[in-house]
Amino acid sequence: MRRVTLMWTIFPLLLAPASPALAQQDTLPVVRIAFVFDGPVPNNEEFLELFAAEIREVLRGEFDVQFPAAMTREADHTLSGVSRVVDELLIDPRVDLLIPLHPLGSYDVTRRGPLPKPVVAPFVMDPEVQSVPLADGASGVRNLSYVAQATQVIRDLTAFQEVAPFTTLTVLGNPRWEEATTAITDGATAAARTLGVELRIIPVDRPIEEALQAIPVDAEAVYVTPLLHLTQPEWDELIAELNRRRLPTFSMVGVDEVHLGVLATMRPDTYFPQVARRVALNVQRILLGEEAGSLPVFFDCGERLTINMATARAIGRFPNWNVLTEAFLLNEEETPPERELSLVQAARDALEANLDLAVQDLVVSAGEEDVLLARSALLPQMGTTATGLIIDEDRAESSFGAQAQRTFTGGATVTQLVYSEPAWANLAVQQQLQASRVERRREVRLDITLAAATAYLAVLQAKALERVQRENLLVSRSNLELARVRRAVGSGRAGEVLRWESQIATDRQRVISSESQRALAEIQLNRLLHRPLEERFATTEMTAVITPDGRVRTTDPALITSDERLVRYGSNLQAWEVFRNFMVEEGLSLSPELNQLEAAITAQRRAYRSTTNSFWSPTIALQGSVDHRFARGGTGSSGFALPDLPDGFPSFPQANDLSWNVALSFSLPIFNGGSRIAERARASEVLRQLEVERAAAAERIQQRIRSALHTMGSSYMNVGLSAAAARAARENLELVRDAYRRGAISIIELLDAQNAALAADEAAANAVYVFLADHMRMQRAIGRFDLFMTQEERDWFITRLDAYFVLAGVSPS
């Protein structure tokens, strides 16, 4: 109790506006309530404010409740000191009701017998262990009401044994309890004996080193009772030393001590606020005339095993899987995951790392080269040659100088295709095929985005269902405690306790299954992101907000469904029909499948036109070449010597070493066995095939878009309905639990109500992620994901949508 942070609970009550009845407090009966603390503790004032705020809230408008400072007393952490303070307040005529706010004071008032004025004791640790008055579920003592949990010590020890098995247990207790210590020790020893556990009681006083030295070297485990007399540094030193000795520890106080280094506890963090509310209700019933000794003393605050995994790692004691399935784990990871994923980040990582998309990138890159290859046929072609020729001597000699024995020549050729129908057609076809490859890559990107998004949502869904199963396990634990209370007061049977223990075993199995499903979902997402399959990562929670008028908006700003403007386009049947028509047009214009077929059709039309043109279209090419003889040698290198001619006669022409030519070629096939006719017919049939395929694909895409929209609309409505059903099922469960607590119904009805609440909670958790997954599939159907849309693109989308509604003559509202 000394270490509980309570201000989050107090503030709403302290800041609540005053009711009209409270504005007239001077007309209400005045009640003065006194508080007693065992001794000074740092958060006494905070603790007092928690109880005072709850009492004010419950009695608002009925009584003028006062808490005079002089009537709030602190003892000296001894039973005798507490008794003196209680004696003084019980005879003080200014005190109307007394509340001891620590365990020692609660124990003191329970051993006094009939009391002169009403007393409510909040902290009786265990009626059986402390041997306090108990009759038919109440104290049976005039003016005495207390609050307790049935068999708390036994339940703590049972849970502790599951976390860290032991046969001997060291208990750290407060030695200042004097004669109370003997009674409690005897009761605890008897309770532990039923579990086959031997207790060793170690008193903890100042200096704490004496207590630490008294802990035997063969100690197996340590049970920490409320040590309110220790200062915070002393308490911290105590726990640090126990952890250094690698001793598992268990706190009777609760979660705050686990946060500070204790290994485990069974008390939930809501324990003290619940006790405060129970005390306030008991005070109200007493002031309204009920006898304090007749009020029920047991209450079910719920149980939740909390384990500090940092402490477990420090002492080297790790709970088994059965325990971990039920426990709430603090510091679960030794180091928090370095990677945090949002929906958008998951999609982007998938696009960057996915191997299937990498293949498509390579296909597009290769296709670019195909286009360049086709274009190259239309560009000038240039080539060079160099030839070194050696022939036999007699051949060179007999050529009369026309051919030397050794010759080295070089040349160059340039060819330009002036016009070629097949070449131009091939370029156009390759360009369209490349456009088809780009659209195919976009299709793969869309598929990968959808796979990554749905895998991410599957992780969130699995986590939500795991959380539901764990909460259901806590409900079963609470119902088990309720059954124990019923049995303790004589209104329940032993079979009910066993039935709930069986139910808890079943719920544990469900938790294990949900953990497995969550792990499988995380592995699937890691595979899509090309990461180590069991690499840890944190996720960004996504949920849906249901407005008072039943509309649903997602909380993730990356989704267009978080835009309030979009909700109105499905507000009625007519608007919903127009919206579907608009989305179909969007999808047909964006569809990569249709764009691929459109590119293929364009390419085939060009191929068909080429086969038609082949009947009359010639191929025209211009070619030029130049050759030069660089060297001649050997026989015949001097050439053929012609005789000298008389003067006046022309000389014979001699060719130099350089030669060139230019040619323009023109070719047109006349007949090739009918192949051109066959090619033209085949191209025509392929074109018709592609056009029919496009029409069929358009129908399929329309169907896919409309089906996805209807499915998404259904899951959209299911979010609000499932949330309402879950809320009603939980409220019904509370009503049934209350009736079961009063003995008005059987355990079967409570089990049915709990199962109904579980099913409703699972449906509500599923509904949000089913809707989001359907939304992703709808976006894949239209060929665009809003995850990557800028705000300007979203605004343009809404603008076009508004214009479409205007043209349709329909108001979206």
How would you summarize what this structure contains?
With 813 residues, the protein is of the alpha/beta class.
Describe the 3D structure:
Helix 5 (127-130) links the parallel strand 5 and strand 6 (144-148). The strands form six sheets. A seven-stranded mixed sheet has the order 8-7-9-10-11-12-13, with helices on both faces. Strands 1, 2, 3 and 4 form a four-stranded parallel sheet that branches. Strands 15-16-20-21 form a four-stranded antiparallel sheet. It has 813 residues and is an alpha/beta fold. It is elongated, with a radius of gyration of 45 Å. Helix 20 (573-590) crosses helix 24. It starts with 6 loop residues before the first helix and ends in a 5-residue tail after the last helix. It is built from 24 helices and 21 strands. The longest helix has 68 residues, at 421-488. The model is unreliable at 1-25 (pLDDT under 50). Helix content is 54%, strand content 14%.
